[in-house]
Amino acid sequence: MSRVLIIGAGGVGAVVAHKCAQAPDVFSEILLASRTLSRCEKIRDDVRELQGRTIGVAQVDADNVDETVALIQSFKPDLLLNVALPYQDLPLMDACLAAGVDYLDTANYEPIDEAKFEYKWQWAYRERYEKAGIMALMGSGFDPGVTNVFCAYAQKRLFDEIHTVDIIDCNAGSHGKAFATNFNPEINIREITQNGRYWENGEWVETKPMQYSQTFDFPEVGERKAYLLYHEELESLVLHLKGLKRIRFWMTFGEEYLTHLRVLQNVGMTRIDPVEFQGQPIVPIQFLKALLPDPASLAEGYTGKTSIGCLIEGVKEGQPRKVLIYNVCDHAECHREVRAQAVSYTTGVPAMVGAKMMLTGQWKRAGVWHMEQFDPEPFLEELGQRGLPWHVKELEPSR
Ligand SMILES: NC(=O)c1ccc[n+]([C@@H]2O[C@H](COP(=O)([O-])OP(=O)(O)OC[C@H]3O[C@@H](n4cnc5c(N)ncnc54)[C@H](OP(=O)(O)O)[C@@H]3O)[C@@H](O)[C@H]2O)c1
Questions:
Q1: Given this model, what pLDDT does residue 112 score?
Q2: Atom 42, ligand 1: which residue's CA is nearest?
Q3: Model-level pTM?
Q4: Domain range spanning residue 43?
């Protein structure tokens, strides 16, 4: 029995609220707080209708540490689950430190004025969290999150040595809009338009945005072209996978999406620096976000599936081995269950499962930790039961 404070009432926050509400034995009291109270209230009403439970709601500016500390002190949660934006990671970690509460997020910190995501800012909290006897779990979404756990499982059960990992992420769904992003547009576009990066033989190799592409055969979807991107789980996995020689991250994009993105970039709409407009400074990408569909609004009528996994090669008992560990998730089924699309769902379910691991003491250690640093098996067992079944497919090893 525990109390959880969820911060952020977007597409992912809604799924987390529903999934926590489905597990009253663990999450006995739930408070959803965000910048806009009306969004929390809408989610509260949906949770009441679909899950038959009442959750609390509150307004909070998560950039303001004192405000969050006051909210923590009044609600007294056992865990703060951050599904606001990466910009809020550090103020929320500060608030947890001040109030002595465990912390979990799904995306690493990035400064608002620089499209650069790295763990160094959050790793800097390690000693303070250890001293305070509280825990922070980094990146408990799908990627990062489940992908880290798939790698930990491969290391524990499937391989003696892991040589290469390709994380492959495909959304083969269709939302019927000319251009939309499946999670926060600002964060999504910043991620895609920055340089790519992968790790090989102990070194990071930088690429131009979308410089490399490759076709992969995605389970239940088929062959799709995916582009090499930098993704944050690479930074911790290179530290925790033994014998690793190369790790890369690939994501699919449709031609329509790439064409829109190219035009928006060419005309300056994806810029993150302020420009003067009629005597006012505006940040073009923030203005663009205001025009694009809200990711949560895509859920109704969304068809198709996501197919995300880790393609891993290495050695087991002296023999070469290649496997794909993956999950396939159907947009329409997510909508039926919690009125969400699959990208929010595949993020929100692992956030709830990570929270359960912490609250039940199955994953519990003071300090700042990554998903692959814990036993993958209880997490994966729970993940399958909570709506994201996963599979291991044996493949012919490369020569
Ligand atoms: N690991 C993964 O697999 C994965 C995948 C997808 C997304 N994510 C992460 O999940 C998070 C949520 O994504 P999303 O699609 O749900 O985004 P979203 O729909 O834009 O929702 C973000 C929510 O955070 C709230 N918020 C923003 N600033 C705030 C502040 N200062 N104080 C309080 N609340 C604030 C927003 O409030 P308003 O309603 O007022 O705007 C909004 O409700 C993001 O960090 C994203 O990067 C992770």
A1: 84
A2: 10
A3: 0.95
A4: 2-138
